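writing this on my phone so excuse typos. first protein, seq and then structure
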Amino acid sequence: MRLPFLTAALLLALLPHEVHSQDAPDPDLVALLRIAASEVDSFPDHFDAQVWLTDMSARLARQVKNPGERIEILQRVHREATRAGLPPELVLAVIDVESNFDRFAISGAGARGLMQIMPFWLNEIGRPDDNLMQIETNLRFGCTILKYYLDLEKGNIPRALGRYNGSLGKRKYPNKVLDKLRLKWFRA
């Protein structure tokens, strides 16, 4: 399944249940996370940003009551998803399933933050002092990891989501994320 691309005016304004590995992390992914930790991107057009942020903010209002926090999350999701080459809406669907937008979420396995990133990544990339509860750091790592898996799976979103979640070959997690994408975070 591939996501269709829409015009920037409609789009601008989107990974893991628990990202973990049984084996040593892939060195290519470690290198990408090192690069991602030092890059910055933002909205290219203020009008497109306003349209997207207004639309997505209304969809997120039930989960994140504070408007300032809600806009901060959405701006950073858009920036990090765009930087990684992912649809921001897909990242929103992943976060919805992973943490229900609780930036302080910690799973039973120890995954942290919005996108439920495993702390071992910090040591793997030589950044042990980074804080996975910080929105930007969590999103940067999560988006980089999700994009890596999407590329590895040649654009196959369900398989990439399965890798992200550690449930490759099973449909439950990818279906939950894709349902959120289709029913809540769809592109208008």
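second protein below, same order as before
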Amino acid sequence: MALPRVGEPAPDFSGPTEEGTLRLTDLRGQWVVLYFYPRNHTPGCTAEACAFRDAHAEFSAENCAVVGVSTDTLRSHMRFRSRHSLPFRLVSDRDHAIARTYGVWGEKLLFGRKFWGTVRSTFVIDEGGRIRAAFDRVRVAGHAEQVLAALREARPL
């Protein structure tokens, strides 16, 4: 499945978090940064989560919720959030249904080995549920700042 395009409605989803089931429609009325990442407790995913954590006050000031999605278990998410003091929710997508819906479940290559997994991607969704920015095959360094800039650019003055 292809990535949803900027301007299209963001596909709704439902997934478990530490606080209970989260639906994208539960977040209507505020902006959302929805980021997909491969695995908890890995160097790149930890750096990305911590960058979003460090910019959390700036995202909150823009009336924007940050939500991370990976195929890890809720237990793993709880440890990851606790270890790194993450102030945002992490959704467990064990069957990759959310990742497939967003077109970010795909073939990857690591050390010459092909496998299927989550392609690191981020979507900025407006308060009405439309995608306002999309980032595919994200490079972690500077990404949170890039997303914050895209959010500010997309928001009306």
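Residues 47 and 140 are 7 Å apart (CA to CA). thats all i got for now
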